[in-house]
Amino acid sequence: MKIRELATGLQFPEGPVAMDDGSVLLVEIARGTLTRVTPDGRVHVVADLGGGPNGAAIGPDGAVYVCNNGGFAWTRDPGNYLRPIGQANDYSGGRIERVDLNTGKVERLYEQVDGIGLRGPNDLVFDAHGGFYFTDLGKVREHDMDRGGIFYAQPNGSGVHAVARPVMTPNGIALSPDGQTLYYAETEGARLWAFDVTGPGHVRKDPWPSPQGARLVVASPANHWQRFDSMAVDAEGNVCVATLMHGGISIVSPDGQHVEHVPLPDPFTTNLCFGGLNRRTAYITLSATGRLVAIDDWPTAGLALHYNA
Question: pTM for this structure?
């Protein structure tokens, strides 16, 4: 696979969204922005969000919906790698935001569920019914950390409820091609979990000893020191998980029996999306080095999302 560099100098990019005009929307977590990268590599800010914009997706109204984690503290490691190290001193609270692409107007939709404040919303995916699932990874502090959850919300701000809670470090979230399986990635254990979807925003839960009602698909494949981040699903139903530390993309079959790893030159390979001709281009955020790259000959077409712009 040949890696094509599209943009550099980004401030911890995440949440890529391939647009119909060939550009890529993404968030810059450390910059606090929703940003567009054009096909010729130009970078411009669509909206200043503040906090820590994390995941992004196009909704049924053509707007961009953003998980905002409220902000990280940052450090630079040898090699000039930028990485988050916990909750920011000026942490502004977790929230779900809607961005109008025509005006750049930002609207806060959700800041709490059942009276409990969102801590670190991370990633989201829309279903065929127009609602979206999202994860709240929580926040890490020097001596403690939150337990997060998985939620389902309406894009007009009319309702949100917990799908599973508490959940340990839920990060990326995605749906199978038929919409009947909801996947999420657990960061700390590098585990991929799955729920059977029984209706919009509802899942079947396994009894104890499942910690949250999900079934385990795969755990830390090949026993590497690694952490799982965000994900995308291909047209054959394989789950492509951005993998930290063991930097690259882990491709997991739906039954968890087959795992491949595409290595990439950044220990914070955080997310990917599919676009281009026949969705055979994988756009990938290499966050520690501040780059957006593309691989044009991805072996399997990406799954078409329900909404695009």
Answer: 0.97
